[in-house]
Amino acid sequence: MEALKSWRSKQSGVTDVPQKIMKYDLVIVGGGIAGCAASIAAAEQGLKVALVHDRPVLGGNASGEIRVHTLGIYGKFERILKMLDTEHYPNGSAEALKEDQKRMTNIAKYKNIDAFLNFRAYHATTEKGKISSVDARHTSTGEMLRFEAPLFVDCTGDGWIGYWAGADYNYGREASSKYNEAWDAQGLLWSPETPDNFVMGSSVLWGSENAGKPVVFPEVPWAMDVAGTYAEKNGEWQWEFSQNDLSQIEDAETIRDHMFRAIYGSFCNYKHPSTQRKNSDQGVYGTFDNTIQQQKADSLQLKWVSYLLGKRESRRLVGDYLDQRQLDKYFSAYQKFEIPGYQELLKKNNLKKTNKRLE
After folding, report:
1. Do 163 and 56 belong together in one domain?
2. 72 in the same domain as 23
3. Which residue has the higher pLDDT, 14 or 327?
């Protein structure tokens, strides 16, 4: 990969060094819900903010490109989060497109937030262990910008800025002995004896619609080794894939293409029912009336298939503090590091604080 990169640079005469420098109080890389919320919170404190995002719309997994609805507890940040979240529509719904516009409109209200859409970060420079700049390239024009600031926030989802800066990170499941977090009730599912690369999978959402007339869908033999005999007409959040020998970062396109085969193969099975195929309407294996099923399938056509992964878990940067399960029985995650008597709590639980890290 590096050899190819060097060859392309030599042939094109284009380097990775930006000629234009942008200076801000705070640079946030990643325009998902976290990045947008951080931008608004900082802007309301008077900071000049650069929001650098590699897609044409904001929202990340909640955007109209991926369409996973938001869900969770607002906490103290309800006002800001309601400017960015979604309604609880079915995952994959086109309603997500409306929320894209809401997000863009609310970010644009803040004159001290500059949104750099379609700019993909590719490098972070550090000086004396501190990030001094981040470089980004426009995904269409190739324009390169260098963003300088005293403060940076990594909201990339894959922890790219911290990774380039040399930060420690975790991926997969640690051995239960590393943080003394064994959970007997869950056994190896929760806390394996040896570390592995098991992570939650990525989703590719999709859906179909009734076209009101017969619609032909071709056979897709290239997809059937994944789809098998399963038949489906839409896919929500549960359409996910993870494999220990595939990285959610380095092998993201391989994972996405696996999901494509599952999608197109399953839809093909739905459009071409047989007595041996499992159908989502039927719910069981076995013989059923093909005539009724064919009537349902004839007018169906694919309406939308995402071409981006909706990731659940990736690289996890190691911050100044590591939360440990032993503390959950005493305090919520929001309380642990601001409570009086915290040092006493550490001592009571045989924990120690070294270099700002719990061990």
Report:
1. yes
2. yes
3. 14
